[in-house]
From TrEMBL:
Residues 416-473 form the PucR C-terminal helix-turn-helix domain. Signal peptide: none annotated. It comes from Tersicoccus phoenicis. Residues 7-122 form the Purine catabolism PurC-like domain. It comes from the Bacteria. Belongs to the CdaR family. This is PucR family transcriptional regulator. It holds the Pfam family HTH_30. Residues 255-368 form the CdaR GGDEF-like domain. Transmembrane segments: none annotated.
Amino acid sequence: MPITVRDLLADPGLGLRAVTDGVDLDAPISWTASTELEDPSPFLSGAEVVLTVGLRQRTTAAQRRFVASLASAGAVGLGFGTGLGHDAVPAATRAEAERTGLTVFEVPYAVPFLAITRRVAQAHADQASARLEGLLRDHQVLAHALLTGRGLPGLLTALAGMLGTDVALTQYGSVLHTAPRSRLPDESWTPVAISTGSADASTLAVRALPADADILAYAQGLVSLELSSQSRHRASLRQVRGQVLGDIVRGTVTGAEAASRIESVGLQPRRRHRVLALSLPQGRGHGHDRLLAALPLPGPAADLVTAVLQETLLIIVPEGGARSGRDVAELIAAHVEAAGLSGRIGVGGAYPHPEGLRWSWFEARQALSRGGRINDVEKLSLTGLLLASDDVPLGAMSDEVLAPVRASDAEHGTQLMITLARYLDLNGSTSAVAADLVLHRNTVRYRLAQIETLTGLDPGVTADRVQLWLALTVDRLRRGE
């Protein structure tokens, strides 16, 4: 506790005697100021105890002005030394002090002003030492809570007790942890940003900010370090799991070995699992790879097995759990949107065994290509199955077939790509294409002949038409159309 005028008066070693009853004897003393100026107020900053022997206070008017200047400057007490200029505290000084509410005490001749200053200085030093010791104890409590298995929930519990207020930790607006009995964050909370240098956009929220922010700043640092550590661990784990699941979906490992591998990443081989595939926006500014590897999931989904595979984040949802695959997809989509990202989620079916996990991945990836916010599972097409295989170079085939058609459109404005797409969509009907594009049928036939010349594939021949359709479908899927 800071030293007060009451503490000075109660110190038997000083022998001070109050001659007026001040308004607030318990106001903290900031420092002492010895002065014989007629008006020392320009040199006071407030909450001082002013010490004087009144050498320039020879008249009652001067005495009243001196006390009034101290009161206006916010002084909390006046120590008047007797035995030099005055044998007792002047009556005018006492009267003005009574009027303004300033505490005045007599300092006997035998008591040097320096003793009073030392007493105030020692009290401030003791207070600073006690504060430092308390801060170090609090630091140890928080660090111990974090490092002895209690983790972030334990740290928040300890912090809430120290601050005497509700405490919570949020990520992208989702509550990650709260101290026991803390109400969930709302508009009355004060956010304190946590910097981790990663995808963990987190906030430490407190109901009321403490007067002393040092312990809160230390807690910020601990939370930041822990979240950064969790982020690095999450990224590493997802990369390792991605390698395991990559071998399974490619069919590199099967049977008992595949079952053993998915068990090693935390999945039960015989249980039905559903794959969710999350795609985040790519681009240099987003740090796409880092986001996928480190992105935290909201609390209810945080314990699910996740992995990074082929530029998507896989979330494996056990069937029959507390939340359905669709519920988890909605939860993650909202979480990603709160992060300011335009993520897309593809939902696969629920199947048992490693082979079922592979099939669910194929479905989720095909669903993802539809480009919606959440894309539910649907019947797996031949194209989707072929695209899921790294062994079939459909992308290269599509580029090889369509590149000369695109080049012609770009150079001559021929609109061959549009004509080809409508021809295939309308089941090879020249008249239907002519009506749809408002063209003469001979124009449509001429464009189809140009396509045959450029690609070497005749749209009127079934085998060639299948290849053109496959090339166009792959191109659409890759473009998210």
